[in-house]
Structure formats: C-alpha cells, structure tokens
Amino acid sequence: MDKNLTAFLAVARHQSLTAACGELALTQPSVTKRIANLEHQVGAALFERDRRGMKLTAAGKVFLKRAERIQHEYRQCIEEVSTISTAGLPVLKVGAGPVFHLNCVAQLFARLNARFPALKLEVRTDTGHDLGKALQTGEIDVYLGIIPPEQLMDGVHIRFVTSVEHGIVVRADDPHARKEHIDPAQLSGYRWVSFVVDPKTEKRIQEYCAPEDALESIINIRTTSFATGLQLVKEGGFVMSAPLQLANRVESEGLTIRPTLHGMPRRDAGIYVRESSLGFNAIRAVLDYFETEDLTF
Questions:
Q1: CATH number of 3-82
Q2: 277: which DSSP letter?
Q3: pTM tops 0.85
Q4: Rounded to whole angstroms, how far apart are CA atoms 141 and 296?
Q5: What CATH topology corresponds to 166-259?
Q6: Residue 86 reports pLDDT greater than 50
Q7: What is the 3 state secondary structure string of 187-238?
Q8: Fold annotation for 86-163+269-292
Q9: pLDDT reported for residue 229
Q10: Which band of pLDDT confidence, cut at 50, 70 and 90, is reported for residue 87?
C-alpha cells in the first residue's frame, strides 16, 4: 500500500507522531515528509499540532474514512490472492468473548495445533474496543462472540452458533441463590461488578435497580477479568452479571448464577471472519470446528 497513506493512517490512529514512528520503525523526519507529500497531493492540511499531539483537521477526518476503506480493500486483495498461492496463515489471531474463551478456545487451539503444527496462535480476550475495526484492519483474523452491527463493515462473514443471555451471580449462601429466578429490583443494597463492556445488559439492570431519572451507572467496579469478578462476589456484598453459559465456571468457584425474573436481552453470538480470508485453511478449520463439534454453551 502507498507509503504516504500508511504513514497517515498510523499518525491518525495514534494521534502522535512519536507513536506512529515507533509503529512504522521510521524516523520522525521520514514520517513528517510522507505526511507533507500526502498533504501536497490532496491540496489540504490533514493534521494540526496541539500540545496533546496530532489532531485531524476537517479535511483529515474526511480523508480518514476513505483511507481506512482503501486499507481494508488492500488487505482483502492481498488475502484473496494469497489463498491461491499459500496453504494458510503463519499466525492466526483470534479475539474471543467470555463465553467462547472460557468454554472452547483451548480445545479449538489444540485441534488447530494438531492439524497445523507450524501455525502460530494468538488469542485476545479484552473486548473493550472496536472489534469491527480490529477485524477490518487485521488486528484479529477471527472474532468469537458478539460484534455490534454498527461496528461492522461490508466483507465480513458471520456464522452464529449460540444465543447469549446474562444472569446474576451471587454467593451460594445468599438468600437469592435459593430462588429459581432473581429479581434485580431486590438487589438495591448490593454493589455491582461488570467484567465486560455490555451496554444492553447494563441498561436493563439500570432500569431494574435505579430510579428512572438516575444519571450515574450502578456499576461500582469494572474489570476485564472474569476471575476477578468472581472473587469480588465471593468477598461478599457484590453481585455480577454474567452469561448463563458460564454456569459451570461460576459453580466451580462455589458461587451461584440464576436467570433474572423477566430475562435479559438475548443476543446471537458466533464467528466473524473477513470474507477475503475464507480461503485460508486455518480459517476454514475454525468454521468446521464449530460446525462438527457437539459444543454445549
């Protein structure tokens, strides 16, 4: 891809010339020159400097939308051509939401490693960012979980394999643990833990537990670690929203998870890959795994 465009995208992504130089392994004068060349080509300033770094101008914001699409198309082109001449990927980068990385990623990776001994595997479990963009830019090759529709661009293949509903995790000796369903409206004296960014579930909990005109979130602690969330519930005084599909993990820690009285929003979860990468054997193996294995979520 054009080196000036690559430099522009790096600076726009980091909003820092220094960070962009680090990513590109170039000197600052080289990156500055590439940005200047691009600005000369388009006839407009794309960045303005302020004390916090490099900020996109109005023209830069318009240019960024097209530049990201060019990068996306370029990556798709490379992948489509590569499927003709290579057996697969040297590294498979997988992003996974909690239901997947806690229930089946280890088994999936074992199968992939047995079939492709030379294939390097990476997994990312932090879901607090724009997953659609991470898939589009090649930061990840596969995502297992839920990507909001507003984050997705054209050219993404989706196969849904389960439906996720959240319940409430409490201590086993909590009075609510003896109930078949938990009414969140009766948990007003508890503190809440959230281990993923889940706006829809948080909104439903907020509706149950907070006054209608409340502005602040009821979540007291946010963590990206499911294990940390469970430990906080164990300490007492905390409750946590978690997918019901993680009941086995919850119960192994001596805790209890129950569905809510009126139910939480159910959302389809599955496998997201770039259509341009479907020809790679490693990608096909991931899709085949979820099609042939008798998985219980």
A1: 1.10.10.10
A2: G
A3: no
A4: 24
A5: D-Maltodextrin-Binding Protein; domain 2 (3.40.190)
A6: no
A7: CCCCEEEECCCCHHHHHHHHHHHCCCCCCCCCEEEECCCHHHHHHHHHHCCE
A8: D-Maltodextrin-Binding Protein; domain 2 (3.40.190)
A9: 92
A10: very low
